[in-house]
Design brief:
heterodimer, A: alpha+beta, 6-stranded mixed sheet, 5-stranded mixed sheet, 25 helices, 22 strands, 20% strand, B: alpha/beta, 5-stranded parallel sheet, 5 helices, 45% helix, globular
Chain lengths: 734, 120
């Protein structure tokens, strides 16, 4: 039977990456002085599974490397090897190495095994050291590694060349075996049945058996599941002794067994069946080495072809599979969904079907419309609404993953960076089971990495500083995740030196971001942290400050319809609070009406709405209008003109101004009316139409009409000219 | 139909084994660790148990030991799926009452050939 193993590759990769994460987490948590055996066991199991799977699915490079790793772990598990910090470092590097091997294999690239080879030699050195110079075990380990290189073919390559070579010799001397087989009394108790072995022997050739029942006791003394028989067997076969021994492999030590070759001089009698047998055995056990042996001589063309076809099949099939399945990039990802979530969906769909059939029945019953019927109809519509809402929630839950999927790599990162910086830092994760939409989670990862790097580099002080300041030597970074009214809040707190507002301000002044005489509130000073082109650290280290600033962090978070805020206290530490919507598919929207059209503003982007006071509107050169909002001038943007809804200049007096904020810039958008606020299901405009600047998507309203969702970032881009005009006004006023 | 209980904590191995066995016409129930397997085995009877060795919660060796205590599994063939090349793990399995083993990595064909030995 041919089974295409590549269908299991995706699962293998997924579980291997999970296994690596688990290994990493366990390694980081491992207390070197007092290692927990269950932790070591789980590290071992993960490595072991990866090795087993990679061998089965033909990823030799991984099997080879994991084997060395596993050998070391096994020794640790058996207490033959102590685990120290260097050892953990080595194991962590191996995790990275396996991960990169797997990633290459997953995207069907040739993995780079250089690093694996280097690490393997380090392992070797550790193993050598641990074996007290016992060279025998070293040789053994080497031999195993040698075997592992050809792991998928390990069974066949070992035997085939020899059987091909040995068989012709054997035919001249050996025609079979004399076997004596006496099972132990207990053999039946582990499920081994001597009948099975006799059956297998019979399949190897011609067999004659003589059973010896002398030891069978009298009926009263007979224990039913004891075994009393023994056999003398004459087996005429061209098989190797290995094949015969293999039959008894599982009962070694549970029986008396002797296998003696039966010799005969006559070659003629067995010659032709031998050739047949030989072909047969080769066909059954195709190997590349078999191919090499047969091809050059080529006396039997038909056999040759057959041989070639079969032997190359696994390799070719794999290559073809690789070509046919279009290069599936790692992005074709899947989500693992808990069975409870699927069950709840099925349950809800069931209820939906019931409600639908109840409504259907009412519709087709032909009853006249009475008040009573209307009442029933309403009741059922309410039920339908209820069902739909629950179904929506459940479907959303499918995309939700615990945030630990992203956060689990942080402990390792914190460890590596703090070592690099010579600082002592511990990371605390709280609420890592809080669930978040998969896409949001993927996109929040980079900003989080940046924040943590910053905290490590600029926040936490050097151990000596900390002690001098009366703080514990080890700094702490806490990541706390929790739900708050339809949002997920990620809080990152460090107990470092805090952010110096005055330095921020001084920096901003030298960069010309803040005027010399301009006074800022404490809050505004801290906000400077997020302005583009501001880095408080003079020298750029390779940990943070590589050109990606906090402004990018904030923009990335805003792209997710989220927000980020900072708070800090000198000498005590800083907190960054990120607020994210649970999902990207739904947002809280403010419906507005402009020229009889409905538009939607993300509620998050609106900072205020106000009745326009015409006295505060100024017309500046170039046709831009600006509005005097408290101390600053903000550009007025007219959606009706921008989107070509009407060209006349309407009266601003009756209109409302919605002030939106994007990247620190306020823009006033003129709308006719504020409508309701509601949850909006976002439909992609790009997928269904084309990308439109200033519009981030669309939705379908209750009455079936399509409404555009306004994109604050896009609008600020469109209003670039007006923004510049408003800035000038503000500066002039100041 | 011949019923086989498969126990392995690795999803890919489990799927591969299950797919292979089902393609060959066997009925398969798969479980993720020894404890789950044991719970199922207590209520359903199987003609063969194929179990991984290294698993969380309850490992394969312990599972074999537990199964052999059950009247219904006294003689049931139990094969260990093992990557151990060394003899002592195999012997630990035997000691607990396993019938035999299939050495990983194995191909679907090899798996089928091996189990045919015990359920002819």
């Amino acid at each position: 039977m041919s089974i295409d193993l590549s269908q299991f590759h995706a699962v293998f990769f997924e579980e291997s990456f999970e296994g690596l994460e688990l290994m990493e987490a366990s390694l980081l948590a491992l207390d070197v002085d007092n290692p927990d055996s269950e932790q070591i066991n789980s590290i071992f199991r993960a490595a072991h599974s990866i090795k087993g799977g990679s061998g089965t699915f033909g990823f030799v490079q991984v099997t080879e490397f994991t084997h060395v790793l596993e050998t070391l772990l096994d020794r640790v598990r058996d207490g033959k090897q102590t685990i120290d910090a260097d050892c953990i470092e080595l194991l962590l590097q191996s995790v990275d190495c396996i991960r990169s091997l797997l990633e290459a294999l997953q995207s069907k690239e040739e993995p780079d095994t250089k690093r694996a080879a280097q690490l393997a030699s380090v392992f070797q050195a550790v193993l050598d050291g641990g074996s007290d110079g016992n060279s025998a075990s070293l040789v053994k380990v080497n031999a195993i590694i040698g075997e592992a290189i050809v792991a998928p073919l390990i069974e066949t390559t070992k035997k085939d060349p020899s059987s091909v070579e040995r068989n012709p010799v054997a035919t001249r001397q050996q025609i079979g075996f004399n076997i004596f087989f006496k099972p132990s009394l207990e053999m039946l108790k582990d499920g081994n049945d001597p009948i099975r072995m006799l059956r297998e022997l019979a399949a190897l050739g011609e067999m004659e058996t003589t059973a010896d029942s002398d030891e069978l006791p009298v009926l009263q003394e007979l224990v039913p599941d004891n075994f009393y028989l023994s056999w003398t067997i004459e087996l005429l076969t061209t098989c190797d002794i290995d094949d015969v021994e293999e039959v008894f492999e599982w009962v070694e030590g549970e029986c008396e067994l002797s296998i003696t070759p039966m010799l005969e001089d006559s070659t003629v009698a067995v010659d032709s069946p031998t050739l047949y047998q030989l072909n047969d055995s080769q066909v059954k056990k195709p190997t590349t080495s078999g191919q090499r042996l047969v091809m050059p001589s080529g006396p039997l063309p038909s056999l040759d072809n057959l041989q070639l076809d079969i032997t190359t099949e696994p390799v070719q099939a794999m290559a073809v599979a690789a070509q046919v399945t279009a290069p599936v990039k790692a992005e074709a990802s899947s989500i693992r969904v808990g069975i409870d979530k699927v069950d709840s969906l099925i349950n809800l769909v069931g209820e939906l079907v019931i409600t639908q059939s109840m409504l259907g029945q009412m519709g087709s019953s032909g009853e006249s419309i009475t008040d009573e019927n209307i009442g029933k109809l309403r009741e059922r519509l309410v039920q339908l609404e209820h069902n739909t809402r629950e179904l929506q929630d459940s479907v959303m839950r499918i995309r939700m993953l615990p945030i630990s999927f992203t956060f689990n790599r942080f402990p390792r990162m914190v460890r590596d960076i703090s070592i690099q910086l010579g600082k002592k830092v511990q990371l605390e994760l709280r609420g890592e089971n809080t669930e978040l939409d998969k896409t949001v989670m993927e996109k929040i990862s980079d900003p989080m990495v940046h924040l943590i790097r910053n905290a490590l580099d600029h926040g936490i002080e050097m151990p000596a500083h900390r002690i001098a300041a009366g703080k514990p030597e080890v700094g702490t970074i806490v990541l706390n995740v929790f739900h708050q009214g339809g949002y997920v809040i990620i809080e990152m707190t460090d107990d470092g030196g805090g952010i110096d507002r005055e330095r921020l301000l001084a920096k901003a002044r030298t960069k010309g971001l803040v005027g010399e005489s301009e006074q800022l509130s404490e809050e505004q000073k801290l906000e400077l942290l997020f302005s583009p082109g501001l880095s408080t650290v003079e020298k750029v280290s390779n940990v943070s400050g590589r050109g990606v600033g906090m402004d990018v962090v904030r923009r990335n978070i805003q792209e997710l319809n989220g927000s980020v805020e900072a708070s800090t206290e000198m000498g005590v530490g800083s907190t960054f609070s990120i607020r994210l919507p649970l999902t990207l598919a739904i947002l809280d929207g403010q419906l507005v009406s402009v020229a009889n059209q409905t538009y939607i503003f993300p509620l998050m982007s609106i900072s205020e709405s106000l009745q326009i006071d015409e006295a505060k509107v100024s017309n500046v050169a170039g046709g831009s209008d600006v509005y005097s909002l408290r101390e600053e001038y903000i550009p007025i943007l007219r959606l009706d003109r921008l989107f070509g809804l009407c060209q006349e200049i309407g009266v601003l007096k009756d209109s409302l101004l919605v002030v939106i904020e994007s990247e620190g810039q306020k823009i006033g958008v003129v709308v006719d009316e504020l409508l309701s606020q509601q949850q909006i299901v976002i439909k992609s405009l790009e997928e269904n139409y084309i990308r439109v600047l200033g519009v981030s998507g669309a939705t379908i309203l209750g009455d079936g009409t399509v409404a555009m969702i306004v994109d604050a970032v896009g609008l600020s881009y469109l209003a670039g000219k007006d923004i510049a005009a408003a800035k000038k006004m503000t500066d002039a006023a100041a | 139909m011949t019923k086989i209980l498969v126990v392995d904590d690795s999803a890919s191995m489990r799927q591969m084994v299950e797919f292979t066995l089902k393609s060959a016409g066997y009925e398969v129930v798969d479980t993720v660790d020894g404890q789950q397997a044991l719970d199922i085995a207590k209520n359903t009877s199987f003609d063969l148990v194929l179990s991984d060795v290294n698993m969380p919660v309850m490992d394969g060796i312990e599972l074999v030991r537990e199964l052999r205590q059950l009247e219904a599994y006294k003689y049931t063939p139990i094969l260990m799926l093992t990557t151990e090349t060394s003899g002592d793990k195999k012997m630990a399995g035997k000691g607990a009452g396993a019938t035999g083993w299939v050495v990983k990595p194995f191909s679907p064909d090899k798996l089928l050939a091996t189990i045919k030995k015990v359920i002819g």
